[in-house]
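Tokens help. Our protein:
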Amino acid sequence: MHKVQSERAQGVIGLIKQYKTQQARYLMTEYCSGGDVSSLLKAKGGRLKEVEAQLIMKKILQGLGELHSSGIIHRDLKPNNIFVTFEMETPRSIEDILSYSRKRFLASVDLLTANFQIKIGDLGFSKYVPDIHQMNSSMCGTPLYMSPQLIQERTYSIMSDMWAVGVIFLEILTGYPPFDARS
């Protein structure tokens, strides 16, 4: 696991503990009360207002900056791998817990006034590189968010993560990724 996860970087999902068996590895990460950005988009009707999108993107870039400054390329940035956690009061009663609906909450939350963090997660494809400008050649990630260099199986650097950020920004603004998956 990456050092940045154990150091509790603000914009990267924290790793609490890991367990390994002969068959599998299990990771216990911090809980993100808002789910992922994909769930947020669905709850908000598929897209966000421009000012909300700017706020989300600023927080994504802060988290990505923490990864890159630690020498880590994510290589699979997408809305499903970016999490939202809200600073909320603890429910006062069992009725509060039972009536809680994440989708209803996300649909109604005002992102401009809410106290929330964005956490980059799912570092399974990420790679530590001593020189973040080092060119890499292993192909991995989700095709809709992969840079042209990755799709063409050419060498790439941290700038491939920046390509994914641009794709995410467009999707947050319009409700659709810029490319059709069938092409």
